[in-house]
Structure formats: structure tokens, C-alpha cells
Amino acid sequence: MSSLSRPSFVSSSRRRSCPECRREIAVVAGRFARHDPQGARGSGELVSCPGSRRQAELGAVQPSLDGYVQPEFPGQLPLF
């Protein structure tokens, strides 16, 4: 049997400072990713930061989760 090597893809989202907790948080599709505020787990409770899922400022968007970005021209996209 031969082992097939698969390419490893490193996915990285742009990060911006959360307006609530000031942590560097990933921004995907124009919103901050869900995250806990600093020190929130000291009591054992799961608490989301108020800045979680908040709309991010313009220019902070990762165009897609999988890295494929559609071209910015009108018309039919190529099949292959």
C-alpha cells in the first residue's frame, strides 16, 4: 500500500481588535468570530464577549471561508 500525501491547507482569517474586549479576533464574512472575554473562564461559566458576532468595520472582511473568491466581473463563470 502506498500512502498518499495530501496538501495541508492553512486557513487564516484576518484579525481585528474587538471593540469590547480589545482582543485580536478573527473576522469572517464581516463579523467578529464568537469569543470569550479575557479572564471569563475563571468562574467556570461559559460567557461570550458582547463583541462576539458584531459587525466589523469596512475592510475587515475575509471574502470566504474556503479561500475561493469569485471574480468581480459580470457574466457566466467558467466551468473548469
pLDDT below 50 for ≥5 consecutive residues: which ranges? Answer: none
Averaged pLDDT: 72
**Structure annotation, total helices:** 0
Radius of gyration: 18 Å
End-to-end C-alpha gap: 32 Å
Physical arrangement of strands within the biggest beta sheet:
1-2-3
How much beta, percentage-wise?
5-15%
Multimerization state: single chain
Report the count of strand segments. 3
Estimate percent helicity: under 10%
Secondary-structure element series: EEE
Cα shape:
elongated
Major β-sheet profile: 3 strands, antiparallel
Look at the helices and sheets and give the structural class: mainly beta
Can you walk through the features of this model?
- The chain is mainly beta.
- It has a domain at 13-63.
- It has no helices and 3 strands.
- The chain has strands at residues 14-17, 24-28, 31-32.
- The protein has a 3-stranded antiparallel beta sheet with strand order 1-2-3, with no helix packed on it.
- A hairpin with a 2-residue loop joins strand 2 (24-28) and strand 3.
- The relative contact order is 0.22.
- The model has no long low-confidence stretch (mean pLDDT 72).
